[in-house]
What does this fold into?
Amino acid sequence: MKALPPNLMNLGVGLGFREQLRPMIATHDGEIDFYELIGDTLFDDFTLEETLRATAGRPVVCHFLAASLATAGPLDPEYLEGIKRVSRTTGCLWVSDHLAITSVFDHDIGHLTPPILDNSTLNMVADKIKRIQDVTGRIFLIENISYLFMPPGAEMSEADFLQRLCTMADCGLLLDLNNLHVNASNHDFNPYEFLMTLPLDRVLQVHIAGSAWSEDLLIDTHADPVPASVFELLGTVRARGGAGAVLLERDRNFPPDEELISELRKAREVWKSHAIGEHYSRDIDLVYPPADN
Amino acid sequence: MASQAMQKALARIYLDADLREKIVAHPSVLNDLRLGQADAEQLRAFVLANRRALDRFAEMIGRKRALRLASVFPISSRLLGADTWASVCKTALSTSASRTIDEVTLCAQVMNGLDNWRDLPPFRDLVTLEALKATVARLVAPEQQMFNSSENWRPKLNRSARIARLDFSPTAISAWASAGGVDHLDREPTPVLLHKRSGTYQTVQIATLRPLLAEVLMACDGHRMANEIALDYSRGRDELASGIREALQGYLELGVLSFEQEM
Ligand SMILES: [Fe+2]
It folds into this structure.
């Protein structure tokens, strides 16, 4: 993987920027090391400027929702242009999106759905990631999704797919620990075995979030507190050299500020106590090789 | 191999409850999906093994769409109450499930009046009012960047845009509402443009259109050249023709139109 400046390997604990969190951010910015911006909301200049104003002074990373990397066929050129523009205007440290399908030709599914885990999909997604890295001049992180079913035709496991993808595309991983926890629970597998298959040194960022039971299924709601099992997974990934950046995702059902602050603090505690090697420093020197135009 | 046909079939299965039922009851429907024999069998086995999970997933998508629709019509959805709103969304979803679905389509159906909405005329007006609020000053064309061959392109209404027709003029409704909504309100058919920027998860933008612009936009079918359309609708008036050409470029910038360029 393209060498990252050491400071990027230890970005700290951040928060997913949401409009509703603006007041909390204004008051408690000191608790937040970096922000993750939803790239899809930044295609219009007004929102982009407002968002950058609210998150000024901290590093940002850009997260996209709808590249639909696993859809057969090329990347939507307009969307790719959007990723390029947003990543350069925000000066983000890296960009990410999901290993998923959100639209197929005329069908806008409107939700992340799992890909067919076969070799042709693997090659295709790797090519698309390389293209995004070329165009943006930034490292791309691929995120694992939560799923209720896996489509037919798989030729390898999800963990194998991710591991091979990282090598082929020379990209990083955004490991969503809540998605892993939810999938392990719904599909009855051991999340730690899953972790051991992954190249954890490529996990530059993790997502932590909450889930809730709906009948017999655990759903990743992003609207509930982060469960203890997710913090335990965080400790393991961190202790094995991953999770330089920990990001708390909260999309709905926003609690009082103190609750979010205490989740950020809990994450920071685990993040610090399980760190190996690099020392934690709040004085992040933001140097990133500028992309060629 | 993850073929396009297989991905299309899966997307339809995720969105269309009727299709899932049919695949279970009448496997012959699989013939319509243009899959090979082996893929078709695999797909049926998948539906059979995951019926509940697929239903749950469809519910999740439905809820998510309802939330997005509610964000376009915040007052209306609250006034209607959760149950009625949910049933409106459910109807909208089920009527569009087998075709392309996106928020623009859903909004178009809402605006054009689904059957069960027709029983609620005041609500219809309210929706219109909200549409107006969401609209004001939205459709200001960005600084005109001259399209390099401004006449030789064939504008086409994007699939992220639709034109809907309201029974009342939003302006009249606004005046009517600020006067307390006591007087009689005359019907005044008004076209509106529903539009979602391509590739975004943002909610639909709604703008009122002058009837001429609505006609011009509807003529953008990817076959006729911009200049041809402009001349047609300006009926010989040069100034109007150049206004129409500029408007088309503005809509292109906004992503309402795409184009087939003349080589
Ligand atoms: Fe996530």
In short: The two ends of chain B are 36 Å apart (CA to CA). Chain B has a mean pLDDT of 71. Chain B has two domains: 1-49, 117-261. Residues 1-49 of chain B form one domain.
